[in-house]
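Section: Multi-chain targets

For targets with more than one molecule, the full set of components is provided together so that the structure can be written out for the assembly as a whole rather than chain by chain. Components appear in the order listed by the source. The example entry contains two components.
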Amino acid sequence: MSTSIGWRLLKAFTVLVYAFLFAPIVVVVVLAFNSANVGTFPISGVSLKWFAKLWENEAIVGAFLNSLLLGVLTAVIGTAVSMLAAIALVRYTVRGRKAIGTLIVAPLLVPETVLAVGLLLLLRILDLPRTFGLLLAGHVLITLPFSAMVIQAHLASLGRTWEEAAASLGASPFAVLREVTLPLSLPAIVAALLFAFTISFDNLTASLFWRPSGVETVPTQVFAMLRDSVSPEINALGTVMILITLSVSLLAGVLRKFASATGGGRGRRPDPPTP
Amino acid sequence: MWLLLTPSLTLLAALLIVPISIMLAYSFYRYVDIGVEKPAFVLSNWWAFLKDPYYHYALWKTARVAFITTVICVLVGYIPAYVIATTKYPRRWVLMLLLLLPFWISFVIRTMSWIHVLGTHGAVNTLLMSLGLIDKPLELLYREAAVVMGLVHFLLPFTILNIFVSIESSDRTLVPVARTLGATPLQAFLEVTLPLSMPGVATGALLAFVLAAGSYVTPLILGGPDDFLFGNLIYGTVMTELNWPLGSVLAIALTLILGALIMVYNRFFGLERLTRGLA
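Its structure, encoded as tokens over all components, is:
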């Protein structure tokens, strides 16, 4: 079958789909190096000047710093909260576990615009202004399902043998957490941190609702720049963003693989002690 | 143990449950003037939503765009999913990695990139003009088709991945069995592979529909002034018109409609599959 004409057509179509997925992105990257003063075709020469221009643009650098701070804080808070919840849900028999599990992934299932309006209504009731804190709280809400799922999957595959061994040797629950659970979960924790960071760093829809006036993140800045015209700087900024989200995600992907490999009992970890 | 759950449950209560409850209450408030409303129990906002043809149009438009996007995603996505799942190509992992790559590339940039492809000075027009096939640029951008194109580009990896997983995890020895029993390759596909991959198709389709129907940014970047979806309507009502009661009605309506779809899915396939598909 794999030599028939039909199979070849299917393969050709697959190649076309991949081209559809990646060609537009390649165009952005290629145009970022275009020396012409418009952000579109034709290409008149190769230049790095638009990347240099990025550093001189205060609005972009400001947005970049905002996104960085927001992403890091979101990742740290979200992952810490997820870790605690995951331990409770995976290690203990909690009443209503299924309901709590569904609640934790609920922010994924509710449209972002609805989550956004909800938080704004809360502010309205409390008569509070939109602040960076709101943006942060919202981003934690949006990334929580992702970090929770990564860590829960890891804890479930890790099993409790190691923790039980430590406890039977006299370790207090807190010592077990600090000396056993946390070190063994490190790859998953780092993966969750990176995962949450990229989601926050890339978020546009909710950020447009929540950002205090005058505060821009990189995506909202790109969005604002798009409304005028497609300047060559956007392409350079886009290329930088692609590099950042891509490298962080690749790192997270590798760590996640590593986490599941060690969690599953393979990898470099010694065999669990027999209780 | 409940101590461990306190931070997450507090967070979800404060940022999700309480706000949605407030939203529900607000949908019955009386709208007085721009940015002013009175606590009350009136149905006028719901009536406005149910009666005004403007909202019917937005609803219909959103459903249509999301539906077309979903159909294209499933039809176009099935073939690569099938090829990757069944190929004997030794470097298959490269194909799978490439499939994950779009998730890791900034969404704004992916959407924006279509301006370079479809715009007046975009790749398509530049190519066609230099070939002498057209005299003046075609207007490909800022219309519904461009919005659908952007959404398909965004959602296709979701559908391919979900269909791929369901073909991959089904019992592949059944196909040779069917073939020995006299089925043609097409029959074997239609009666074995296709039915077994239906959970993946359903998951991919649901994700595509829900995310397309909830989209807000894509129509703004790639659509024309007429191409607003329900998400844009919510933004406009809340952020521009400051009509919070009506905005609440719209937000709840969108949640209920998409929630009903998710419930139907949950009955047949289970929610775990869906959340796994998203992560």
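Strands of chain B lie at 30-33, 36-38.
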